[in-house]
Amino acid sequence: ATLFLLPVVFKFPKAVMAELIEGTSGHTNYAPLSHGQTMSMGRHLQDQLRMLQQALADLGKGLGETNEAVADLKKNAGGANATISNLLENFANSNTVTETLKNDYGRTKANVAKLQAGLEGTNGAVAGLIDSQKVNDTLMKKLQGEISDQADKQHE
């Protein structure tokens, strides 16, 4: 005797609908679904379609926001490139100024060395003049003393 099961109308949970669609529910392939099962499966598939459409819309929105962010980054990168170019130009100018100052320092150092040598020579000459003045002062005092002594002798 063949036993036929009459379809029972009840609402399948979503997990059962997924098993029915995937073919892993254990139902036989030749048994037709009831109208309620078919409608339930259709609602399940429609819900999945809506979720996919929402996910696709969210992805599209995210892509638009990403494109705006990339455009902003490109715009900012252009400004950054100009800033970097200005910095490089200023760096090159600074290097030129530094090189000029380095050369000026070398010349100034040589001039200071000459001045120092001249100052040492001048110090020696001044020391010699001071010694000569001391000798002259001593001679003047001696001469004044001799003149005073002669004046005193003439007045006597």
Average pLDDT across residues?
Answer: 82
Weakly predicted, low-confidence segments: 1-12
Evaluate the radius of gyration.
56 Å
How far the N terminus sits from the C terminus, by CA atoms, comes to: 187 Å
Overall, the morphology is rod-shaped
Task: Give the gist of this structure.
Helices cover 83% and strands 0% of the residues.
Write the layout of secondary structure elements.
Elements (H helix, E strand, L loop, with lengths): L13 H9 L12 H120 L2
Explain the overall architecture.
The protein contains 2 helices and no strands. Helix content is 83%, strand content 0%. Mean pLDDT is 82; it is low at 1-12. It has 156 residues and is mainly α.
Task: Supply database-style keywords.
single chain, 156 residues, mainly alpha, 2 helices, 83% helix, rod-shaped, disordered N terminus
